Amino acid sequence: MNTKLREMLKFPCFFTYKIIGLAQPELIDQIIKVIQIQIPGDYTPQIKSSNRGNYLSVSITICAKNFEQIEILYREISKINIVRMVL
């Protein structure tokens, strides 16, 4: 699958991550901080709360210059302790 995605994308391109994490105030700041290290810029995430309010779904779009940026961000966002899933 990694090879197919790599072949489908033409760089630079916009790429959206969907992140599911615990509904804690620092979640958004931690995600943006990780992204800012790799790709500085202004980001406006879309945020939705789960039905019970325990989780947040965060969609954030970046402009990637190469496939390695996409992979690095996926790994780094996944390392945030209150993140449960990165799509």
UniProtKB/TrEMBL annotation:
Gene Ontology CC entries for this record: cytosol
HAMAP family: UPF0250
Family annotation (Pfam families): DUF493
UniProt source species: Buchnera aphidicola
Protein name in UniProt: UPF0250 protein ICW73_01600
Family to which the UniProt record says this protein belongs: Belongs to the UPF0250 family.
